[in-house]
Automatic annotation (TrEMBL):
This is Heme haloperoxidase family profile domain-containing protein. It comes from the Eukaryota. Its cofactor is heme b. Keywords: Heme, Iron, Metal-binding, Oxidoreductase, Peroxidase, Signal. Belongs to the chloroperoxidase family.
């Protein structure tokens, strides 16, 4: 396939995938007064605690604002001895209730793909995306909006990342699990030549990463996809001790901190670097952010009944949710049968980045990966600590990451990268970022190296678990 053909197909569909590139939309969010107040409060608290350790980081240079949530925990709820805390009727008034009759639950069959994302697995098990687990960017955008109220900006970014790094960008299809011959150029007919795309479970690229909430690291036991009951048990323990019985932001942050430490200690090929590390940290925030019954920050609750259903975590004893020794088995992911309310407001990139930042600042996990000689190869230095600057940094990291993945997998090279950059540049500007990645201006590959080093660091190329590292 000639690159020009590829780009034409790519370009046209790409423009449609980004309806969010509207400055007004993002601006409104960044100026949200509650969001600003909350992030300022969190950062101030954080700064007070860490003032001594971190002279080099500064608070608030150009803090534009940020996120809508992180308010979890200030809610009114009633106690139910089977479901745990459930939101008051006031908190769910006017919200859309699920499941829907025309989207019944059905367990996946043997050839259906399921993967590391409980959100996408749930959507497939209810037929909001194809039940075989092979979906297009458009299908994922529509389904994540319909059931979870994910903003089109956020779903486009995630799903496009999935298609580029783990799927087929021409048909815009991806497997929500591992590699699948039904995905690829000409529906896989050319996979023998080009290779079979990895699926969103492809490790160390844009998507799947180490230190996940309930999935084992890629290099430990070689299974990066399956739900691990023991890890869910640990998450449940944090819900009890930190979340006052809910899987709120405080609970997930503590779980992440522990998971990072445990993974780094156990995994000789540990890799935690931008941008995949941001996907991992974002996914933690998604637990209360999307699975809460009702709207997070407005009375919605990430209660036991909701979280276990979406995760397919089946308690081994009923009605024992307050027992820290409670164990779980796995069943397919499902929208809670007894009824569940979707959040009222879309989660945009701005909110997700605020969530990532909150998780990041709490745990301060070093970015990087293990080198061949057991050294630690550092990722990017100086990661900004305010949402706006962090968003811009993240965009750069995504760009710094794409070329290596494209060179690594399919035959699409610089032309695609340039097209991509040109098309995403407006969104990047909308967030108030300076558009300075080398590909946007057509400047040379030499500059790319320095820029890639700044945003992704040496770890991408030198860490053994990066998915890029080669032993030759
Ligand atoms: C829009 C397209 C989406 C894509 C491409 C995507 C992809 C992924 C990937 C690759 C992971 C693995 C990250 C890791 O290694 O930790 C993941 C995890 C996760 N995702 Fe998604 N996701 C999407 C949407 C959603 C939605 C809508 C939700 C919630 C409703 C969600 C909730 C989660 C959660 C909670 C995890 C963490 C799983 C764990 O316990 O380890 N995702 N997702
Ligand atoms: C914890 O939850 C109980 C209800 O189970 C509630 O009465 C109490 O106020 C909550 N405590 C905090 C600190 O939120
Ligand atoms: C969600 O909240 C509603 C209203 O309070 C309640 O009827 C329902 O059982 C809850 N569902 C779950 C899964 O907690
Ligand atoms: C890239 C990828 O998909 N990695 C592995 C994830 O885990 C499964 C086993 O469960 C492996 O087969 C994949 O190779």
């Amino acid at each position: 396939m000639r690159p020009s053909t590829v780009c034409v197909a790519f370009l046209a569909s790409f423009a449609c995938s980004f309806p969010w590139l509207k400055p007004e939309g993002i601006e409104t969010l960044l100026n949200h007064p509650e969001a600003q107040a909350e992030i300022t409060k969190r950062l101030t608290e954080h700064e007070a605690i860490h003032a001594n350790q971190r002279e080099t980081r500064q608070l608030n240079t150009g803090l534009v604002g940020g996120l809508v949530t992180l308010l979890d925990g200030t809610l009114s709820a009633v106690l139910d001895n089977v479901l745990g805390l459930i939101p008051t009727n006031e908190a769910v008034k006017g919200l859309k209730r699920f499941p829907e009759e025309k989207h019944p639950y059905q367990a996946p069959g043997p050839t259906d793909q399921r993967g590391p994302c409980p959100g996408l697995n749930t959507l497939a098990n209810h037929g909001y995306i194809p039940r075989n687990g092979i979906a297009t960017i458009g299908q994922i955008n529509a389904a994540t909006a319909a059931v979870f109220n994910m903003g089109a900006d956020l779903s486009s970014l995630l799903a496009t990342g999935g298609a580029i790094d783990g799927g087929d960008i021409i048909s815009q299809k991806m497997s929500i699990g591992g590699a699948d011959d039904r995905v690829g150029v000409l529906n896989g007919a050319l996979n023998k030549v080009l290779g079979t795309p990895s699926g969103i479970a492809g490790h160390g690229k844009f998507n799947e990463g180490d230190a996940s909430a309930t999935r084992e690291d890629f290099y430990l036991n070689g299974d990066n996809i399956s739900f691990k009951p023991e890890l869910f048990k640990q998450l449940h323990q944090q819900a009890i001790s930190k979340g006052n019985g809910t899987y709120n932001v405080d609970a997930i942050k503590e779980h992440f901190k522990n998971r990072y430490a445990a993974s780094k200690a156990a995994n000789k090929q540990f890799y935690f670097n931008l941008p995949s590390s941001a996907v991992v940290m974002g996914a933690y925030y998604f637990i209360p952010g999307f699975f809460s019954n009702g709207t997070i920050g407005a009375g919605g609750i990430a209660n036991e009944a909701s979280i276990t259903s979406f995760y397919g975590a089946k308690p081994t004893k009923e009605g024992q949710w307050s027992d820290p020794e409670l164990t779980y088995t796995h069943v397919p992911e499902r929208i809670p049968e007894q009824g569940w309310y979707r959040r009222a407001t879309p989660m945009t990139i701005a909110e997700a980045v605020g969530g990532i930042l909150d998780v990041y600042l709490y745990a301060l996990p070093p970015m990087g990966g293990s080198g061949a000689d057991q050294s630690w190869v550092v990722g990017p230095a100086n990661i900004p600590n305010n949402p706006q600057a962090f968003s811009c940094f993240l965009y750069n990291a995504i760009y710094a990451n794409f070329p290596s993945e494209l060179f690594n997998s399919v035959v699409l090279v610089e032309t695609v990268v340039n097209a991509l950059s040109g098309l995403i540049a407006p969104g990047y500007k909308a967030l108030g970022c300076t558009v300075n990645f080398p590909d946007a201006t057509g400047t040379g590959v030499s500059q790319y190296d320095a820029w890639s080093k700044m945003y992704v660091g040496d770890a991408k190329y030198k860490a053994t678990g990066s998915g890029w590292y080669k032993t030759t």
